[in-house]
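Quick look at the format.
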Amino acid sequence: MTSSWTSPLSGFLDRADPYRRSHADFKPPRSALLLAVLRNTPVEPEGFTLAVFSADSKGDKSKKHYAVDKLGRVKVLQEGDVETLKGLLRSVEELPVTEAFRNTWVLQHERTSQAIDRVLIPKSYEEEYLETSVQGFDYEKRVLRRPVDGLEELPQSLWEVTGALLESRGGDGEEQGDVLAYVRSVLGNVF
């Protein structure tokens, strides 16, 4: 099936407000992590795409949510976008398990070696993360290489959330290496 990707979450980083404090002050605890998105490709085997936190430091009581993009830029998300994102993540958590490595949903492509985008949702310490991955994400196609639990297409919620989160890979600018190093340390051994 071919369809065009749309989502109310589209453009969520463009709607986000700038982070007004110094990037050096951005030190959220692991307990504030809402999600992380990583990318694995032959060229970028340990790629970072995005992380979303519910605090920017241990003492933050503001109820704001912060996104860190692939360059380490920090933005303050709009409340409506956070609620939409949380709803999509709840739907992703309810999807069937693929039984593939890293719970990967593989889209049908003519070529192999497609990028794998990994959505990590923090769980209890023992589990570390609920991981759901998409190999070969496409904004136009949803057909799976092999059905998963009777599903022949990438589920709408996973297609929608993956497409929106991958928007954070766009844009240019100066990399905030200190922020990226801190976020990688919070994520732990997931790369």
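Next, a different chain entirely:
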Amino acid sequence: MAVHEIQRFSNSERFWHITGAATFIVLAVSGLGLYARELSWLTVLTGGPYLSKWVHFLAGLVFALCQVMNFVQWRRDCSEWAEVDGDWLRKSGGYLWSSHAEVPEQGRFNTGQKIMFWSTSLESLGLLTTGIVLWVPFVFPKGIASLSLLFHAFFGVTLIMLIVIHVYLATAANPGTFRAMWTGRVSAGWARFHHARWWKEVDRP
């Protein structure tokens, strides 16, 4: 018997998200290799110290574009806040001190995903802003350039941490979730379990 599936992500959403993920890996590897002396060996993976600077710059431009497109595509869904979001937080989304059965029905994106969206959007904006300063430091006062290096590293490390959490929640913690982005489709059972309110809107007469 065929499993009933629902379209969760469009081709455009998948393209920009997956492209952004790929360029983020390049940015993380090249960035850590360039910034931390102990991790300088990572630059071997991106062409060596000199070439890694250009790889990091170009990957940053692509990543920024991807983040802009992701923001445009998902800002509306991730701007819908209601009482159920507070309940989700109080019950830890069913991950820590509550069971999933106690968590209120969620829309297309749950509360945690909305928080992740806005957090990564702000982090990305911070990286872009400080990155521009670092690329043309002679345009800005010396103190601004020095602070930008510090904040660029801070935004980079915290974004890496957020993405690690995101990957864990999209794979091991919630089987079937990664497939949603890879293929764009999910089973009706998955949708009903994780996003019941959204499932009722898109898959019920």
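The longest strand covers residues 5-7.

See the schema section for token definitions.
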